[in-house]
Amino acid sequence: MQPDRIRAQFLRFAVVGTVGFAVDATVLYALIYGLGAGPYLGRLASFLAAASVTWLLNRRFTFPDSGSRPAHRQWTVFVAFMAVGGALNYGVYALVVTFAPDHPVTPLLAVAAGAVAGLAVNFTTSRLFVFGPGFSRP
């Protein structure tokens, strides 16, 4: 694949990731401060919400050629691969929440740090396996 096309995909992936970050943080804050969930369990739910939104946007915007694949299967593969980057993301998040001062902005900073940590892993697995040629099953 041409480097310019990969850069363009990465840029679109990052834009979609920014939307995912907003969904992740919004759902997390709603769960923590609205429903009384803890920051760790709340983050698992917010991550799943963000992964679902980013899958849909990446399918339509970043990797539009992959839209003919069965959506339910592709979503499952996406979430499974995002769990790899998500483990790194969540680990960084947990470190920040655990060791940073207890402040209302701490979960937001932790989500941002985790998102940056998982970006390269998530882009690579998405491009190669979820939306690319590695996902060849009908």
Explain the overall architecture.
The protein is an all-alpha fold and 138 residues long. The chain has one domain. It has four helices and no strands. The chain has helices spanning 3-34, 39-62, 71-99, 106-130. The longest helix has 32 residues, at 3-34. The model has no long low-confidence stretch (mean pLDDT 88).
Features:
138 residues; elongated; 4 helices
In short:
The protein has 138 residues and is mainly alpha-helical. Helices cover 80% and strands 0% of the residues.
Total domains, how many? Answer: 1
> What is the total tally of β strands?
0
How many helices? The count is 4
Q: Beta-sheet strand percentage? A: under 5%
Q: By helix and strand content, what is the structural category?
A: mainly alpha
User: What is the arithmetic mean of pLDDT?
Assistant: 88
| Unreliable residue runs | none
| Shape assignment | elongated
SSE string, helices as H and strands as E: HHHH
